[in-house]
Design a protein that fits this description.
Layout (H helix, E strand, L loop, with lengths): L5 E5 L5 H11 L11 H10 L5 E5 L2 E11 L2 E9 L8 H15 L4 E5 L4 H9 L9 E5 L7 H8 L17 H4 L3 H6 L4 H14 L4 E4 L7 H6 L4 E5 L2 H14 L5 E5 L11 E6 L10 H14 E12 L3 H7 L4 E8 L3 E12 L4 E11 L5 E12 L3 H11 L2 E6 L13 E7 L3
Parallel strand pairs: 4-5, 7-8, 7-10, 8-9, 10-11
Antiparallel strand pairs: 1-2, 2-3, 3-4, 5-6, 11-17, 12-13, 13-14, 14-15, 16-17
Helix pairs in contact: 1-2, 11-13
This protein binds S-adenosylmethionine.
S-adenosylmethionine binds next to loops.
């Protein structure tokens, strides 16, 4: 049965009976037990409501996740979806919400119990849980600093429902995820970079990884070519889009997703090819961050393994002439669906070698009247070829090639892009 719109909200006292019954059916237990009873659900509601959620569709509870925190460790206690509504991403939405709130609370280590059922463990692995052979399955999230006021509001449960307030504390792309694909399509290298990486990954034997996998624009097409690929990203919302896209394409078994910061990712096995497409290295703001990430990538490659990434060739003249001027990236006004307009405005800090990109998303009615406007800040820094060269050598990479576009043209003074091939020596 297909569900209509699903809302994730905090567990309320009036949900206790329904959640208990849903759990009883889902866990396939004949009756109430010491592990699963109405008292157990009541305990979560009274003691851990802030990290316990139900999924509701058409005023019916179709799933739940019950979590708690102890000694700064979060724990996923129970998660279940009504069997009539499975395979529709409801469990992912539930865990996604719980992890966001844990992260916002500054809780960075999450555990759950390893299940005997391999499918359940694979589900947890998709969200970055590892060590699934042990009894305890762990996930390390990135800490996020929260003001005391926001933390108090979260703990008292007032922010945790549909919480736009939390957006300032979550990865920048979480806000952009919904419109990322239309926004990215406006970039002139969107198609050439897609074709380049899909081809490169398809031709490579062994373990392939895309860092900053985003909505799966590239990875899903690699998987479509029957190549398994691992995607790493810090943004759960982007990973959620990627997962849905993979399910839609029927290739979810070929994509493993890991929620992690690229500065500290660990792969289940060393990789033969790691790619970091679409200038994403620019999201690592300092040269130190970039070096730390290069070191991490080097350590996660097999000897002889390659790291391939791209970045634009920075033009100060272009930057100065576009500084502070909004650019329309996408504009569509449809007679039946209303309008969507996306604007980029770049603000440069030339001394810091950084740029703040404000992405303004406007949704309008059919007459073009703006109904909703959201500003998504994206922080970015550019890197020069000589800086890449220096960092790569310091980390131990050999530079195999530098191209000036996605058609393998040698890099030169008039190139618009840098496409780097680095190799870990054998
Ligand atoms: C420009 S998008 C690229 C997405 C995809 N690779 C593509 O080509 O369409 C950058 C992605 O990098 C992710 N990202 C940014 N900083 C990150 C970090 N420190 N660790 C992991 N992912 C990060 C963002 O969440 C986003 O999904």
């Amino acid at each position: 049965m297909t569900v209509a719109k699903v809302i994730i909200r905090n567990l309320d006292p009036e949900d206790i009976r329904t959640v208990f019954e849903l759990g009883l059916a889902a866990f396939d237990w004949p009756s109430e037990s010491v592990f699963w009873s109405e008292q157990v659900v009541r305990w979560y509601c009274e003691s851990a409501r802030v990290v316990s959620f139900v999924a509701e569709s058409d005023q019916m509870i179709v799933g739940f996740i019950l979590c708690f925190a102890a000694d700064s460790t979060g724990c996923v206690g129970w998660i279940a979806v009504d069997e009539r509504f499975r395979q529709q991403g409801i469990a992912s939405k539930l865990i996604h919400r719980a992890l966001l709130v844990f992260r916002a609370l500054g809780i960075t280590k999450i555990t759950t119990l390893a299940r005997e059922d391999g499918r359940a463990n694979r589900f947890f692995q998709r969200f970055g849980f590892h060590d699934c052979r042990l009894r305890k399955v762990e996930l390390l999230l990135d800490p996020v600093a929260l003001s005391q006021g926001t933390r108090d509001s979260l703990l008292s449960g007032t922010l945790a429902s549909e919480g736009t307030h939390m957006q300032q504390t979550i990865p920048e792309y979480d806000i952009l995820a919904e419109v990322y694909d239309v926004w990215a399509a406006a970039d002139p290298v969107c198609t050439p970079s897609h074709d380049f990486y899909v081809q490169l990954c398809s031709e490579t034997e062994g373990i392939i990884v895309e860092l900053g996998v985003g909505t799966g624009r590239i990875a899903v097409d690699v998987a479509r070519r029957n190549k398994p690929i691992i995607g790493v990203d810090i943004s759960l919302s982007m990973l959620e889009q990627c997962r849905s896209r993979a399910v839609e394409a029927g290739v979810q078994d070929h994509i493993e997703l890991i929620q992690c910061d690229v500065r500290s990712f660990t792969l289940p096995q060393k990789a033969h090819l790691i790619v970091f497409p679409f200038r994403s290295i620019g999201h690592l703001l300092s040269l130190e961050d970039k070096k730390q990430t290069l070191q991490r990538i080097f350590d996660q490659l097999t000897p002889g393994g390659r790291f391939v990434f791209d970045h634009y060739a920075f033009s100060e003249q272009w930057a100065r002439s576009h500084d502070g001027i909004p650019r329309l990236m996408h504009g569509q006004l449809s007679a039946d669906r209303g309008g969507l307009f996306i604007w980029d405005t770049y603000r440069y800090d030339f001394a810091a070698q950084q740029m703040n990109c404000f992405i303004t998303i406007e949704k309008s009615d059919k007459q073009g009247r703006v109904l909703e406007k959201t500003h998504c800040p994206l922080s970015f820094s550019w890197i020069l070829p000589e800086q890449v060269q220096r960092l790569a050598l310091e980390v131990g990479f050999e530079v195999e090639a530098l191209y000036g576009d996605f058609s393998y043209t040698n890099f030169g003074a008039s190139s618009l892009d840098q496409v780097w091939f680095l190799r870990r020596p054998t």
